[in-house]
């Protein structure tokens, strides 16, 4: 089992590039199986564990998938099977995104129920409500969800009770091949929804309004493979922005898009961080002294829940009391206990965490409780005294490519070792840093 060992105290400087977005590429790969003719070619695909998982899911359904460097070619023109194998759904909830495409193309889809996870219960009722409104019969039982429709799905008017990202994606994919018009209201407005709609439109779909709260989809008879470049990962970019700020450094994050990161930029600026827009990204300059602030997570364009734990790490270094309130997921504070091992002064009150800063952070052995928590603990380790050892890296690997190497290139004292090597490291920490 791997471990990341980071020693605090180094200032980060230089340039780092954001990869293609995990949360954009997963629905785009799922959408590629709607094409009954032609190949899809996707560029800027990050080599992440989640990408390998979704590739395996559609490969098991009989699609041809080839990943080379950061490009993926998908040919789904074969007859596909309409069931997602349970082992992949267990690994990654986003596997449920094949439901919409399969149901639209074949009138049948079955996936295992993904269940709850480390950040909350994450129900799928809004996805299912959308399919039912389009005429599908949905049954949930024996650990799986099965949807079936005789003939084609029918366009419908659907109002989401919550602006769910996954439900919006599943419904627009299903509606793209439905008969007639679907109007989806109170939908998610995340940039990844816009990227998915752009890809589907290149495949021949007729979708307008993505990025607003009402999306209109006029169903077509057939969709074709298309070529598409995935948008940059705003959460990975935001994580490196925090790394620059927390270490008092100066880092250009290439690919970081101002319009996708407005809420994060505004909060970091309130904390005293300087952020300058450059031609190819955002330059982030950490202040001598960070100031406390309050944050409430919300659906886009509000502050993203996927940046909550990283901002908590930043708050630990700020002077004063900060309050962070999580409104999207009911159980996304597992990292608080891990931060406490590092001598963080913080307490949970209902859906809020009160952070007393600045905390004199000390290195400790901590666990990545989810992928963003893993990144956040490493960020805290950048400024902690001594060595921080982060385990359970399978979570981190779902969402970050070469995280250790990228931080090392910026000047962090960090390395990734396997358990046996780390035993030696613990008695005699190495001074060297790993490079790309
Ligand atoms: C692969 C991917 O893109 N993952 C992102 C996606 O997850 P995901 O698509 O799973 O998140 P949702 O937007 O669906 O969830 C948001 C909220 O809606 C609730 N809900 C959702 C669906 C439903 O049918 N019923 C319901 O009540 C959830 O419990 C949660 O409280 O958006 C989240 C919120 O920005 C991000 O944290 C995840 O990184
Ligand atoms: C929660 C996340 O992802 P997922 O929905 O894939 O679990 C995330 O990216 O922070």
Automatic annotation (TrEMBL):
Primary role: Cell wall formation. Adds enolpyruvyl to UDP-N-acetylglucosamine.
Domain of life: Bacteria
Identification of the protein by name: UDP-N-acetylglucosamine 1-carboxyvinyltransferase
Subcellular location(s) of the protein: Cytoplasm
The organism's taxonomic lineage, starting at the top: Bacteria, Bacillati, Bacillota, Bacilli, Bacillales
CDD domains to which the protein is assigned, alphabetical: UdpNAET
InterPro entries listed in its UniProt record: Enolpyruvate_Tfrase_dom, Enolpyruvate_Tfrase_sf, MurA_subfamily, RNA3'P_cycl/enolpyr_Trfase_a/b, UDP_GlcNAc_COvinyl_MurA
Gene: murA
Residues the record lists as binding UDP-N-acetyl-alpha-D-glucosamine: 93, 122-126, 306, 328
Source organism (scientific name): Halobacillus shinanisalinarum
Residues at the active site: 117 (proton donor)
Record field: catalytic activity: phosphoenolpyruvate + UDP-N-acetyl-alpha-D-glucosamine = UDP-N-acetyl-3-O-(1-carboxyvinyl)-alpha-D-glucosamine + phosphate
Chief location category: cytoplasm
Residue numbers carrying 2-(S-cysteinyl)pyruvic acid O-phosphothioketal: 117
Residues the entry annotates as binding phosphoenolpyruvate: 22-23
């Amino acid at each position: 089992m791997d471990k990341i060992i980071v020693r605090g105290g180094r200032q980060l400087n230089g340039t780092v590039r954001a990869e293609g977005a995990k949360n954009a590429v997963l629905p785009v790969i799922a959408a590629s199986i709607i094409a009954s003719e032609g190949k899809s070619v996707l560029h800027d695909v990050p080599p992440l564990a989640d990408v390998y998982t979704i590739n395996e899911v559609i490969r098991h359904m009989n699609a041809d998938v080839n990943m080379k460097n950061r490009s993926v070619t998908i040919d789904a023109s074969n007859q596909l099977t309409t069931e997602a194998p349970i082992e992949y759904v267990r690994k990654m909830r986003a596997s449920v995104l094949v439901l919409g495409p399969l149901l639209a193309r074949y009138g049948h889809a079955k996936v295992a129920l993904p269940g709850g996870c480390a950040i909350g219960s994450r129900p799928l009722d809004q996805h299912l409500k959308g399919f039912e409104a389009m005429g599908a019969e949905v049954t949930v039982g024996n650990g799986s969800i099965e949807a079936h429709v005789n003939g084609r799905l029918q366009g419908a008017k659907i109002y989401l009770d919550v602006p769910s990202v996954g439900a919006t994606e599943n419904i627009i994919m299903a509606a793209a091949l439905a008969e007639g018009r679907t109007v989806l209201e109170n939908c998610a407005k995340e940039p990844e929804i816009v990227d998915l709609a752009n890809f589907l439109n290149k495949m021949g779909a007729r979708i307008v309004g993505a990025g607003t709260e009402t999306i209109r989809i006029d169903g077509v008879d057939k969709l074709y493979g298309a070529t598409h470049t995935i948008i940059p990962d705003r959460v990975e970019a935001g994580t490196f922005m925090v790394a620059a700020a927390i270490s008092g450094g100066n880092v250009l994050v290439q690919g970081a898009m101002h319009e996708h990161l407005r809420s994060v930029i505004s909060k970091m600026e309130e904390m005293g961080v300087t952020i300058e827009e450059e031609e190819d990204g955002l330059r982030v300059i950490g202040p001598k002294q960070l100031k406390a602030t309050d944050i409430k997570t919300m659906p886009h364009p509000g502050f993203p829940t996927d940046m909550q734990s990283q901002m908590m790490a930043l708050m630990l270094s700020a002077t004063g009391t900060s309050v962070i309130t999580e409104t999207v997921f009911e159980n996304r504070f597992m990292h608080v206990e891990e931060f406490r091992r590092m001598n963080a002064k913080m307490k949970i009150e209902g859906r809020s965490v009160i952070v007393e800063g600045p905390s004199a952070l000390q290195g400790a052995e901590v666990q990545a409780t989810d992928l963003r928590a893993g990144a956040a603990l490493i960020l805290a380790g950048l400024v902690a005294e001594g060595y921080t050892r982060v385990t359970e890296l399978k979570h981190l690997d779902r969402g970050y490519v070469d995280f250790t190497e990228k931080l090392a290139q910026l000047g962090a004292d960090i390395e990734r070792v396997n358990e046996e090597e780390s035993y030696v490291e613990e008695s005699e920490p190495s001074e060297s840093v790993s490079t790309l």
